[in-house]
Amino acid sequence: MSHLRSLIFASCATFVPTVVHAQSVAYCQDLRHKVDSALWGADTSLARQYYAELIECPSSSIHDLRIAFELALVQQDSASATDLFQRCIIQGWTIQWLAEQTPGLRPPYKQSWIASMMDRYPTLLRDSFSVLDTALMGELDAMAKEDQEVRLEPACQNPDETRNDFCPAIQAVDSAHDLRLRAYILRNGLPDPHKLGLSVGSFHLLLLHLTYTRAGVGAWKFYQPILLKGVQEGTFPPGTYAMLFDVHQELVLGQPTLYGMIIRYDEQAGRPRIQPILDPKGVDQRRAAINLPPLSHWAREMDVLLPAGYP
Fold first, then answer.
1. Confidence band of 279 (pLDDT split at 50, 70, 90)
2. Strand 271-274 relative to strand 263-266: parallel, antiparallel, unpaired?
3. Phi, psi of 164, deg, nearest 5
4. Could you say which DSSP state residue 193 is in?
5. Summary count for the chain: helices (H), strands (E)
């Protein structure tokens, strides 16, 4: 019972929303109350039934996925636990990236949770991933390692600029990685995130660096429609797509963002703030089109200030 009650208290916290559907926020909150009641009554089967609906709600969060995952563990449902754990990894990458990039941001998602789960349930979460594409995972991880190492080379450091993608060594590595990813995608389509395990972060990192470099104008024209199709088909996380889009929009094109995914610390306000958005009045409609919650909801959950001009 103590484990179940700890899940109740954890489920009361607010976390970053990941999925938007037609149900109302009130309906979703009602589901949370039903989950709490079921957990207090030690009825994990009923709680999981409610969670199956809750994780598809407008106010659904990665934290909801985490609780649903732990409930599946309580019932020793390895198949559901594996699927939910994978969803936590996929949805959590964007939040982890934001945490590393934005001073003062206090995101609720920490990569350490994944590591702790892997340590606590090694057999379930490693051996039961029978669908993992270990060859592709190894290649993506090796490419991501090379990507990071070349960007740390002394010859590629430029203390006067925030970007170092003009370094010839970085350009060479990015070009090679771009060709390899394009060849794979043209032959196989987007990698199935459920087959990548923790290597989904390596794939997203490579996409990020390929789309925000100056040479990334051509790369983004290739990847953007493919990633958008993945969002529409449920094979690519909308939050990651929006973040990649906005990074390219701001850093490469020098224009305001479309989805409000760029956050920087506002020294005057003393808090992180969402950066300027193109047509702020239309941002919620654009976000809804790719299954993201309204910007005001997301800003409240992330504890950041809204940009100027947002209604």
1. very high
2. antiparallel
3. -130, 25
4. G
5. 14, 4
> What is the pLDDT at residue 15?
29
Give a three-class secondary structure readout of 249-275. Answer: HHHHCCCCECCCCCEEEECCCCEEEEC
Q: How far apart are CA 82 and CA 63, in angstroms?
A: 16
Distance from C-alpha of 280 to C-alpha of 223, rounded to nearest angstrom? 25
pTM above 0.85, yes or no: no
263-266/60-61 β-pairing: unpaired
Contact 108, 16 (CB under 8 A): yes
What's the Cα-to-Cα distance from 276 to each of 97, 167, 306, 308, rounded to whole Å?
19, 29, 9, 7
Per-residue confidence band for 180, with pLDDT thresholds at 50, 70 and 90: very high
| Residue of 149, 153, 126 whose CA lies nearest to 137 | 126
CB contact at 8 A, 306 and 296: yes
Distance CA 236, CA 113 (A): 22
| Interval 34-87: pLDDT, tens | 777 777 766 777 777 777 777 766 556 666 777 777 777 777 777 777 777 766
